[in-house]
Amino acid sequence: MNNLIYLDNSATTFPKPDVVYDFMTSFYREHGVNPGRSGFDAAIETEEVIQDTRKILTDLFHGEDPNRLTFSYNASDSLNMILQGLAVPGDHVITTMLEHNSVLRPLYHLGLEKIIEVTYLPFDIHGYLNPDDVKKAIRKNTKMVVVNHCSNVIGTVQPLAEIGRICKEAGVYFVVDGSQSAGIIPVDMQQMGIDVFVFTGHKCLMGPTGIGGSYVMPGVPVRFTRYGGTGVRSAQKTHLEEFPYRLECGTINIVGVAGIYAGVKWVLEQGMDKLHNQEMKLWDKLRKGVQKMDNVVTYCAESIENQNSVLSLNIQGFDSGDVGTMLDVDYNIACRTGLQCAPLVHTQLGTDKIHGTVRLSIGPFNTEEHIDAALCAIDEIASITRPEIRIMNAKAHV
Known about the structure:
Radius of gyration: 22 Å
CATH class of the largest domain: Alpha Beta
Structural class: alpha/beta
Number of strands: 13
Number of helices: 13
């Protein structure tokens, strides 16, 4: 494990900073009690850390009221609550071919139940959404536009401010999936016109799995779809309408919140720009290296501008899964292969017909030596020219 070259940071960043592990352990040992339910010191101190985390994330996303920052299991969990809580029968929703299944599946089920109609906008040859396409797709009954800030397959960062301006002019809610961007790409909800921003803790925020959430701007009519304990006004029969209780019920993942708290503080101390520039320098080295190789194809990887450190590629004649296995078994390199839970990206790229791509994603603890090793491994695999292997794989892709 110590020799593992980990290039799967889009799935979850690994390792985490030591301060995250240390703070989670000490916090849970000393404050592993139920917050907001009791008046003893430990419970009050636990609630203070939760509230401080709401504040630090609200500031990070340029929200207004920390109470409107709510926690959930992860981004998929929050997106389900937001999309189901906003949609009503007869609504039209605009989204993109870039989306993760955390958006696609809730919308599909809402469509299957005849509640909404959905328009899926394509991306251009460089991997970006054209804001004019959003404007043209808006109808009288369009309720919201849902956009992935940063693709988990090709890493392109979308023009949120332009899309947000179009949504505001049309009176349409703008929902952003920030799973791949929160903690590495600056987000200003007010400047970008974002009504709902959804995040997860275990990626660029450097926290653990099992924690995420959303920030909902005032005036966005998200209905609550879950009911339960809040520790407040227990005699009331209906669930509380005010935030944060509106989108939270039961005891939240306090050790997960503590992990985000420590992770965000670490990110801010390091500097988001510094971390992003460091990762993009390595990404650019990886990109330029593989693009010089025969038989290697990259997707929408042309510039470090408006890009995150995610690179998708294929080696001609090889199934992506086979390449991933060789990288793992023969070179001790961890990556992600297949459709990466974002099938429509691959449909537009045409990679759905060849079992997706090999995705390499760089994090803050990767080094130049890691990239050199990955380049060497990919070059060696790509240099295998046995005709029978190429014919066999070609047939497998038909």
